[in-house]
Amino acid sequence: MRILKNKILTTDFFNQATLLVTQKLLGKFLVRKIKNQTISFMITEVEGYDGPNDLACHACKGKTKRNEVMFSQAGHFYTYLIYGMYWMLNIVTGPEDYPAAILIRGTKEIVGPGRLTKQLKIDKSFNNKLATPENNLWFEDRGIKVYKKNILQTPRIGVSYAGPIWSIKPYRFILKT
DNA sequence: ACGATGATGAAC
DNA sequence: TTCATCATCGTA
């Protein structure tokens, strides 16, 4: 009998074309360790924010203190506060100096980006941290095969400010369950 | 349908 | 220094 080892996703995985990684994240697991409890969630909803030309991407107007982590090496977390209440969890993708990231919007267990971070106790302390077990928050491939026919592709949520072209780009991917 | 609630960045 | 804007959610 073959023993499948859960593979931790590192910089190599995230340092690929953002939209490719975005789709590949479906069916992967977000793992969170709090004290001695380790809990994991299967990712089912994500959105890609891809580079300086993407007007929905926070970094499209250049580097600022808030978004500077998007320009760093792939595999870092980008967290920020929205609506004065909710932390958004993103994972940086692509090569250094190319600002891109993926917003984790939902899992099989918890749907909604704000709910997810609330329940997993994710806040600004994760910003700029690498996705590793040492930082108590990371991603794993557990060998789940995702078929294209089970992926739903739609425009991103809440980005009407990005204009007629970029607000309707179908960069949101949902895994049908 | 709307209010909560505060960081951000751009205008002044 | 002020102000509109937000990658949302829970309560109606």
In a nutshell, what does this entry contain?
By secondary structure, the protein is mostly beta strands. It contains 4 helices and 9 strands; from the N terminus they run E-H-H-E-E-E-E-E-H-E-E-H-E. It is globular.
Write structural notes for this entry.
This protein has 177 residues and is mainly beta. It has one domain (7-175): 3-methyladenine DNA Glycosylase, Chain A. Helices cover 12% and strands 32% of the residues. The protein is built from four helices and nine strands; from the N terminus they run βααβββββαββαβ. The protein has helices spanning 11-14, 18-24, 113-119, 163-166, and strands at 7-8, 29-34, 37-50, 77-82, 86-92, 100-107, 137-141, 151-154, 172-175. Strands 1, 2, 3, 4, 5, 6, 7, 8 and 9 form a nine-stranded antiparallel beta sheet that branches. The mean pLDDT is 95. The protein binds a DNA duplex (12 and 12 nucleotides) through β4, β5 and α3.
